[in-house]
Amino acid sequence: LSTGQIAFDRHGQLQRAQGTLQQSERIAPPGDDDVYRTWFRINYNVLQTRRMLHARDPLYHMAVDVRLLYSLPEVLIGYFQARRLPWRGEKEALRYLQAHDQTFRDLWQQCLAAPDRAQKFALYEQLAALSLVPVGGLWPDGATAVDFSAEANVRQETVEAALAWWQDLVGENRG
User: What confidence tens digit (pLDDT) does each residue in 139-174 have?
Assistant: First the structure.
C-alpha cells in the first residue's frame, strides 16, 4: 500500500492510508536496538557458518547450505538497517542498490549464483562486511560481544558498560 499505485479510490480512503504509511516510514527508521541486533546476528552467523564450513563432518557442510539460505536475505536487509534506511521490499532494495551501491548489488548477484559452497561463503562474508560498514563491520578474530536480544532499547552506553564488565572479569590482569 505504501508504494503501490492507486488506480481507483472513490472516497480517498486508500490515498489517506497510503499517505499515513509513507509518512510513518519516513519518521521511523530502524532504531538503535534494531541496528544492534542486526550487527550482532550477522556477525554471529558469519562466525558460526565459517566454523561449520571448516568442520570435517559432511552434515555440517549441508548445514552451511541451509544457513546461507537465510543468511543471504538477512545480510541484504541488514544493509538497510545498518544505514537506518526503511525496508520496502526486495525490488525496492535492488533498485536502491543499483542507484547507490552497484558494488554491493553485483556482489549479491555473484553470491546468489555461486555454485561452490566455499565460494558462496566467501562472497557472503564480503557482503556481510559491506553491509555492516556503518556500524563497525565484522568482528575481528577473538572478539567478545554481548547479546542483548532480550533487552529493549539497547544503547551504546549499555554495550560499552557490558563489554567493560566482561573485560574486567576476564582481562589480562586476572590470574
Answer: 988 776 667 666 656 677 777 787 788 778 877 655
CA distance 87 to 131: 14
Are the CB atoms for 86 and 22 separated by under 8 Å? no
86 contact partners, CB below 8 Å, separation of at least 6: 25, 26, 28, 29, 30, 80
Q: How far apart are CA 66 and CA 60, in angstroms?
A: 10
What crossing angle do the helices spanning 102-113 and 117-131 adopt, rounded to 10°? Answer: 160
**pLDDT tens, residue by residue, 2-32:** 667 888 878 887 787 777 776 655 545 677 7
CA dihedral of 123, 126, 127, 133, whole degrees rounded to 10: 180
User: Do 105 and 98 form a contact (C-beta atoms < 8 A)?
Assistant: yes
- Which of helix, strand or coil describes residue 143? coil
CA atoms in the 13 A half-sphere facing the CB of 41: 21
For residue 30, the SS3 value is: coil
Alpha-carbon distance values, 18 to 13, 29, 57 (Å): 9, 17, 52
How far, in Å, CA of 34 to CA of 155, rounded?
A: 11
Dig out the grid coordinates for 64 from the structure. 552451511
